[in-house]
Amino acid sequence: MAIDNITMITANFSVVVQQINEAMPLWFQQGGLIMWLLLLTSFLTTVVTLERCFVWLHYYFKKEHLPLLDCFAYLNKKEKTKALLACQRLDTPALNMLAFGINALPFSPNEKMESYAERKIHNMSRGQTLLDTVITLAPMLGILGTVLGIIHSFNILGVQGVNNPTEVVAGIAQALVSTAMGLSVALLALLPFNLFRALLQRLTLHLEGVGSEFYHICHQQRLISNELSEIMKTQELSRTNKDNEEVFKYTVQKDSEMPYHYEFKEGSDEVKVNLHEEMKELHKTSQESLAEMYTSPISKKKEYFSIDELKLQKQKETARQVQKESFRNKTR
């Protein structure tokens, strides 16, 4: 049952193809399979051309000039919210790219904007690969059809001889039709391909100009802050302060004659004061000696806190007698 259905479908398809082939002009029927391939390529070229024309016309009918000016004006005023709303008025590549950049602020928007621009340019260039392929393939198919036609004509010439050269000439003329058809299809694809490529280059330059203006405004108004550079600067400043603290601590501890050691706490005004180890020992020794002095019993034979007045009077009297004797000796 299934085999019968397949056979019936195949028979119906053959009938339809035969009817379509009979409806074609005689020169098309004589081209054979090559003409059908050229017809397919021309159909694809037409579809792609119409679709791309609709896309580009839809893009150019959108007037994005005013929203772009409003967006840049708000960015100059550092009003990112209003600038984002201005970009969302229309759905165009430039405005969408600016929206990605504004959403990325205050971080660098380069990667997001470039990534979106590349994706959009790739989408706008859709179909150009097919047109480029048709431009190369169609003439080759036409030449192939011509070669096959000439081979067929010479086969006839070889069988029938030169008695009737009119048929041979007619066969060669029919074979050249495929070459003409291939060149026509290539031209049909070449014109829109060059047009769409020029439009794509223009769009690329437009996106680059909008991106450059956006970067200029962001740097001028300081809307971009590089977090990584700020972290590196903070670390470098902290490292420098630590080095200066170590040098100052070494100077106070080793090179100074001050008996105290100062320690500064980073990020605070607290100062910790300690005695050096040598000064601790000296201070301990002095305290012990003073303690022995004040706690030891006073000897009866020695007086530490008074003077012997009798000895002092005796010394004074002795000195007076010596002076008197010396004066007497001089007067004699």
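Second entry:
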Amino acid sequence: MDLLHLIALLAALLSAGLMAGLFTGYSYSVMPGLKILDDRAWVAALQHINRVIINGRFMTGFLGSVAFSLAAVVLGCFLDDRSALPWTIAGLVLNLVSFIGTMAKNVPLNDRLEAAGDPAALADPAALRTEVEEPWIKWNHVRGTANLLALAALAWALYTTGLAA
């Protein structure tokens, strides 16, 4: 059981780290870099990114951050030493904040961009950008911060197991 818990905890830590890196990377580089684009080019860029990001590598980290954290919590409940459990639960909750925020906020905004169709045919690309850009960036900051905090909580959980020493 200890080995399975350790594997789940490490997988949760790694997937939270992948998501923290991706989402915070968007916050400090991708979105500021795209800001210089005109409205049509901005819509086109986001549409393209949203299409290509749905792949196995992304989904493994995105879904894994929650699934592996949940597995680590469940397995941690069966350990004699449960000192890591509060930190593992915190990591799970924070990964859930990111997951739920993504599904409730960022994905609908991505869907709105996709539903707009060909950026070259948009009558008012500036209105679409105004509708999507600020809330998308705001919720991206939330999910990136949540995953970063999840990473810290899971790292502390690993440390408290004594296996990291």
